């Protein structure tokens, strides 16, 4: 199987360890079925999530493909993918309507005929009975199986998935499109089975979230050798609120199969280098949000807080909405923000803290024009008798500038609370 | 060209009018290039936007494909797409780094060799001069062209696009990945040229946004014949804040090329039927948001307003943040929302209107548990001496429940302001 795959034109770069330790699931393709996707009416979010999950398990995704509800196109996509990769995961098209044709497509691709499975039919009928509805005839196709397919239970819907085994060891997995149905099926049923059959080299990943430094500056500080190395892979991603540096590593394996450098060691070394190069700019790890950082900083300081903002369309409040220690948020219209210097941010921070009866008040005023955003923020602790003011000019403007002003105020609050006093 | 395409396995359903009125751009494929996409680190948003734009111009998108930065894979994708569709649009991979290989891939696919174009080089050097930076050697590849490519000017970045003409009339378009660069290039340069060369039958689309009715109920009221008709196409899309009914129509054309029923007529007839079937549930059209609706309702009533909410994590404020007539938004922590009946919504609505010195106050309190969300909202006009209260139970819960509570309060405000008084 390895040798055969190597001759295919679409194959991804062969893994260095492929020859010494054959593993079934190294390369995957993801299909998302639905005309609403190719018409641009809705966006596929499953592909990215599954790609991330597979990538962390050492499986390379060679393509994520969105397809319309057209039997010939979807069938051809299965035929092609099942001839080129180890694992095909398709989402969507498992509903009861004639438009839902993913089952038909994979059946045609593997040359089998779907039939109602008695066990699945019993399950489906009991599901509708519990809902007090007669099973509509159309839904019977959700009890279909083909001989080479195993049903994947769906605890949150009427569409079971399919796990289809091919004679050459390749697998096609069909899952329903709604994320709240797909996610538990993937996590609790599919992923454990994939793992049992063997995946690629597990990839260790650490994401360092930096703030207050630009992408080109980060690239310069890290240097080209580090950014072009194959293992660990170090890459930067500019998000709206962070510049992420993502480090990922796999075990280095010699020709004789011996691990010459474990992934954890390579990752730790690269992380230390990145942290040293970027000094104080690394503010968080992983998926940490500014709300998490402010939640932690206020909890550690043992304070509750309230915010008041102007000229930001509530950007700061939206950013921190889920913070448990946030007691009140007030947003004013933009009339007060014509001149950021005129709005008394320190007084406002004190007033909102007093009104909400909390220890800390945070006030933010911002004004954005066509090219930049000026902001002024104050953190005040009226009972403790201190306050701090931040003045900043951002090169972002408009809605993006307002969002970044909110981030700057959140970062300022976390900074101030973290200081020794 | 038509006949050749018809034999290909991946082709979309031929258009009924294809034989009588050949048009160059009927079927398109979209490629998004970047390993960050197939690793699931970032999501492709360009594909959906371009698909929507093409779909409205009568071009069917047969696939949207995300690919990693691997020359062999991207080249193979161009070869395959340029053999199967009329138009290939690729986004991403036009940066200056060795990873950016979309130019190399399309050059290899069409068998040409890229070279620095003197005109593009002059433009690029002057761009860097204006920024006061020496042109880095790596960026010179952004001045590349191949003989069959025309440069597409990029007013917002250093990466020009490519328009590649094939001898058989097919076209490949390469655009940079950042949306703020891509969008104006698509709208102002590419789309006008595509139109000049001729597109598919322009599709007329109208989206009716409904509120307060479930998807299965809508399907029942519209009936299966309408939902399965080929022209006009009527489809429902459940969004977080709306249930959309999208109607789209093309001209009906007889075998002799005569238009037997113009798209506008078919659309108008279907729209009338849908509006009658769904009665008062159609609240808006197109891309209208709840912020738009409240903005219009308050402007028409000649009032400004302020909001206060509790137990919603600021969901209502976030929803209405951009409304120009919103003078103040206050969000309280969830402590007050343990029992929605205890929080005096009418008094709070009056108080916030008085504090903010506006005509209308809107107060919302919501409590969500594991299965549902209870909410209570009040609209008060203290000077005019009236108020109205809404009590509602939603089947959504958690963050979704809070969001829907915000939507319900916004809908209530618009309703109340729209009443004759």
Description:
The structure is a homodimer of 421-residue chains. The first copy, chain A, is of the alpha/beta class. Chain A contains 14 helices and 19 strands. Chain A has helices spanning 2-6, 35-38, 46-56, 71-82, 102-110, 118-131, 179-197, 215-222, 224-228, 263-278, 290-301, 315-320, 345-356, 398-418, and strands at 27-33, 60-67, 87-91, 115-116, 144-145, 149-152, 161-165, 171-175, 204-210, 233-238, 243-249, 252-253, 259-261, 282-285, 305-310, 326-332, 360-368, 373-381, 386-394. In chain A, the strands form 5 sheets. A 6-stranded mixed beta sheet of chain A has the order 2-1-3-8-7-6, sandwiched between helices. In chain A, strands 16-15-17-18-19 form a 5-stranded mixed beta sheet. In chain A, helix 4 crosses helix 5 and helix 11 (290-301) runs parallel beside helix 14 (398-418). The longest helix of chain A has 21 residues, at 398-418. Mean pLDDT of chain A is 89; it is low at 1-23. The interface between A and B is large, with 59 and 60 residues.
Summarize this, please?
The first copy, chain A, contains 14 helices and 19 strands. Chain A has helices at residues 2-6, 35-38, 46-56, 71-82, 102-110, 118-131, 179-197, 215-222, 224-228, 263-278, 290-301, 315-320, 345-356, 398-418, and strands at residues 27-33, 60-67, 87-91, 115-116, 144-145, 149-152, 161-165, 171-175, 204-210, 233-238, 243-249, 252-253, 259-261, 282-285, 305-310, 326-332, 360-368, 373-381, 386-394. In chain A, helix 4 (71-82) crosses helix 5.
């Amino acid at each position: 199987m390895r040798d055969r795959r190597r001759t295919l034109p679409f194959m991804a770069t062969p893994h260095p360890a492929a020859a010494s330790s054959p593993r079934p699931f190294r390369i995957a393709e993801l299909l998302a079925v639905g005309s609403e996707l190719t018409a641009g009416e809705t966006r596929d979010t499953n592909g990215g999530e599954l790609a991330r999950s597979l990538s962390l398990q050492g499986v390379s995704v060679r393509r994520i493909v969105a397809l319309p509800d057209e039997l010939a196109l979807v069938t051809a996509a299965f035929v092609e993918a099942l001839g080129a990769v180890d694992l095909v995961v398709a989402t969507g098209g498992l509903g009861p309507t004639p438009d839902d044709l993913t089952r038909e497509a994979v059946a045609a691709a593997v040359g089998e005929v779907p039939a109602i499975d008695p066990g699945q039919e019993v399950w489906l009928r009991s599901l509708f009975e519990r809902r007090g509805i007669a099973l509509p005839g159309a839904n019977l196709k959700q009890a279909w199986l083909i001989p080479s397919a195993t049903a994947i239970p769906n605890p949150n819907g009427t569409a079971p998935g399919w796990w289809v085994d091919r004679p050459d060891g390749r697998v096609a997995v069909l899952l329903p499109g709604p994320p709240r149905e797909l996610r538990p099926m993937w996590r609790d049923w599919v992923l454990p089975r994939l793992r049992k059959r063997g995946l690629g080299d597990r990839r260790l990943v650490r994401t360092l979230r930096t703030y207050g430094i630009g992408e080109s500056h980060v690239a310069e500080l890290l240097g080209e050798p580090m950014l072009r190395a194959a293992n660990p892979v170090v890459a930067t991603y500019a998000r709206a609120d962070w510049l992420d540096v993502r480090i990922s590593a796999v075990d280095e394996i010699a020709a004789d199969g011996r691990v010459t450098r474990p992934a954890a060691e390579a990752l730790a070394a690269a992380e230390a280098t990145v942290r040293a190069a970027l000094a104080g700019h690394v503010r968080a790890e992983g998926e940490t949000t500014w709300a998490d950082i402010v939640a932690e900083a206020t909890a550690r300081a043992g304070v509750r807080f309230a915010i008041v903002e102007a000229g930001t369309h509530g950007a700061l409040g939206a950013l921190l909405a889920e913070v448990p220690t946030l007691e009140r948020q007030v947003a004013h219209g933009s009339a007060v923000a014509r001149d950021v210097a005129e709005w008394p941010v320190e007084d406002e921070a004190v007033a909102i803290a007093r009104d909400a009866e909390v220890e800390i008040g945070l006030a933010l005023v911002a004004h954005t024009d066509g090219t930049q955003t000026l902001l002024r923020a104050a953190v005040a602790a009226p009972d403790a008798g201190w306050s701090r003011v931040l003045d900043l000019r951002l090169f972002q403007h408009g809605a993006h500038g307002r969002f970044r002003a909110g981030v700057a105020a959140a970062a300022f609050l976390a900074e101030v609370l973290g200081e020794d006093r």
